[in-house]
Amino acid sequence: MNLKLGILLLLLLSLYCTTADSACRTSDGCDLALASYYVVSGKVLSEIALEFKSNILQSANSIVEYNRENVPNQDTLPSFIRINIPFPCECIDGEFLGHTFQYNVAGGDTYTTIANNTYANLTTISSLRLSNPEYTENNIPDTGVLNVTVNCSCGVSSISEEYGLFITYPLRPEDSLDSIARATNISADLLQRYNPDYTVANFSQGSGLVFIPGKGCLDGGKIRNDGK
Ligand SMILES: *[C@@H]1O[C@H](CO)[C@@H](O)[C@H](O)[C@H]1NC(C)=O
Ligand SMILES: *[C@@H]1O[C@H](CO)[C@@H](O)[C@H](O)[C@H]1NC(C)=O
Ligand SMILES: *[C@@H]1O[C@H](CO)[C@@H](O)[C@H](O)[C@H]1NC(C)=O
Ligand SMILES: *[C@@H]1O[C@H](CO)[C@@H](O)[C@H](O)[C@H]1NC(C)=O
Ligand SMILES: *[C@@H]1O[C@H](CO)[C@@H](O)[C@H](O)[C@H]1NC(C)=O
Ligand SMILES: *[C@@H]1O[C@H](CO)[C@@H](O)[C@H](O)[C@H]1NC(C)=O
Questions:
Q1: I need a surface site. Which of 153, 185, 192, 198 has the fewest CB within 10 A?
Q2: Cα(192)–Cα(224) distance, rounded to whole angstroms?
């Protein structure tokens, strides 16, 4: 092959790879992803179920099913724990994987309280701005519906085919690469490879989203990674 053709091919290939990285097709989605939601005191399950309502989450009971170890029933929700909330992972605008929830605003809501408190940092203020062109940040009506987008992952086959269920996990100050690796039984190296955006994969920065792989076997709400 002549050199010019070789270079052209290489160029095309790298172009293809970068677009493939940032874009998605409808078929790239997956039926299920999990959102790791940090519960603060005063939250009740029925409220969370409304905020994360989707075709796979109709009631508080669906949340109980995924969190049997931590959440014994619909009426008992311990505070200061993480729960896994199931949601569908879809290709949004051909650009990235996520799901857009419909949130019924309440008086006093701001983009900050919605991102920071209501959705426990699973979304961000800039994402809220982008998904709600009809409203301006300081002019959210007292009643109305906001689009709240939560990102997700369905895996990366070039890394491993073994993992099929991913948790969207907002980092908190108490988290570190080692603490997450220990809690999930996923090696630190694999965790970093699934989160290339964090070029140095800083799991200790106390904020930001990472994706944690699982094998899709749920046992009492805990993701088992022993392949059984
Ligand atoms: C986020 O909420 C916490 C309480 O849940 C509060 O202490 C903190 O100041 C808030 N951060 C921002 C940026 O609003
Ligand atoms: C969301 O992030 C803010 C700022 O980093 C933090 O103060 C707040 O406690 C976080 N909220 C939850 C529910 O973890
Ligand atoms: C979701 O992913 C898109 C594309 O990578 C990014 O622009 C956006 O900020 C992310 N949203 C959140 C809430 O992290
Ligand atoms: C929510 O998203 C839909 C679909 O993209 C859009 O038509 C609607 O205007 C958005 N809502 C707001 C409040 O901007
Ligand atoms: C990761 O974040 C922590 C907290 O912000 C910081 O102290 C540390 O230097 C960062 N590490 C890297 C490798 O960027
Ligand atoms: C942890 O992962 C290793 C290999 O990935 C597996 O052999 C082991 O059974 C797992 N342990 C638990 C407690 O899941």
A1: 185
A2: 19
CA atoms of 139 and 110, how far apart (whole Å)? 9
* Alpha-carbon torsion, ordered 43, 45, 46, 49, to 10 deg: 110
Which residues' Cβ are closer than 6 Å to ligand 2? 38, 40, 116, 120-121, 172, 207
- Cβ atoms within 10 A of the Cβ of 120, count? 22
pLDDT at residue 103, rounded to an integer = 97
Which atom from ligand 2 is nearest to the alpha carbon of 116?
1
CA distance 182 to 133: 41
Number of residues in the chain? 228
d(CA 190, CA 171): 17
Q: Hey, how many other C-beta atoms are within 10 angstroms of the C-beta on 93?
A: 11
Q: Residue 224: is its pLDDT beyond 60?
A: no
Domain ranges of the chain: 26-223
CB 149 within 8 A of CB 100: yes
Contact 116, 151 (CB under 8 A): no
Ligand 6 proximal residues by C-beta, below 6 Å:
185, 225-226
Check whether 66 has a pLDDT greater than 80.
Answer: yes
For tokens 């309502």, the residue is: 53
What's the burial of 84, exposed, middle or buried (CB within 10 Å: 0-12/13-18/19+)?
buried
